[in-house]
Amino acid sequence: MRLKHLTAGLLALCATQAWADAQQSIRQSLDQLNFPLAVTTISETPVEGLYQIQLENGRVIYGSGDGKYLVQGALIAVNDGQPRNLTAEVEAKAIGEVINGIPTKDLVVFAPAQPKTHITVFTDVDCGYCRKLHEEIGELNELGIEVRYAAFPRAGTDSKTAEVMRSVWCAEDRQAAMTRAKQGKSVTRVTCENPVTGQYELGAQVGVQGTPAIFLANGTLVPGYKPAQALAQEAIANQ
């Protein structure tokens, strides 16, 4: 019995050392590449010799234990014909933490009296489907969905749209200014310290490629417009 316990302990020690060596090798490889994003954690995967590299923006890549190979893509677990996208599950959780960490004071929030859950929408005031979604803000609120807008001017932070969005964020009444902008009406030009550029950069980091980009409370991305009833059902189911 003592030999069995000793063997188990040695195996655990070897596994721990292998994991530590893999972390060091992977981090060295990323440093050599001047990788642009910080690594938050490196952990084992169900695949022997393959390690999960969690990035600060919530995204995941994979690396071999010797650090010589990096892999970007989805890791799918095949469970008796019932596939699970392990990468998507991990990324959604991490991205949800990033998105939900944006202070609400830096967002344009349309909140119901008794919210059931919330969505965070990276939006552009000139985007047609963003405007269509905004027309349903009242219905979403009635269904218990708090809508939090983050800025994502598609033409970039030096565009006229970005200038309008800065005025929205600097307005005394952000909700009214956002509604005017989404209706194609003029917004009084105002300047202040604002989060538009930071939110645009964050959106790019978490994979926003178009607007509206809707993140549910659990970090799941709903790309593009979805009618209020369907969106509310999905938001409540994925809190």
UniProtKB/TrEMBL annotation:
Thioredoxin-like fold domain mapped to chain residues: 116-233
Major location (coarse): periplasm
GO annotations of cellular component type: periplasmic space
Alphabetical list of Pfam families matching this protein: DsbC_N (PF10411), Thioredoxin_2 (PF13098)
Keyword flag Glycoprotein: no
Alphabetical keyword list: Disulfide bond, Isomerase, Periplasm, Redox-active center, Signal
The keyword Protein transport belongs to this UniProt entry's keyword annotation: no
Cell location: Periplasm
Signal peptide: 1-20
Location of the Disulphide bond isomerase DsbC/G N-terminal domain: 20-88
Entries under Gene3D superfamilies matching the protein: Disulphide bond isomerase, DsbC/G, N-terminal, Glutaredoxin
One GO MF term: isomerase activity
Function: Required for disulfide bond formation in some periplasmic proteins. Acts by transferring its disulfide bond to other proteins and is reduced in the process.
Record-stated family: Belongs to the thioredoxin family. DsbC subfamily.
This protein's name: Thiol:disulfide interchange protein
Originating species: Pseudomonas saudimassiliensis
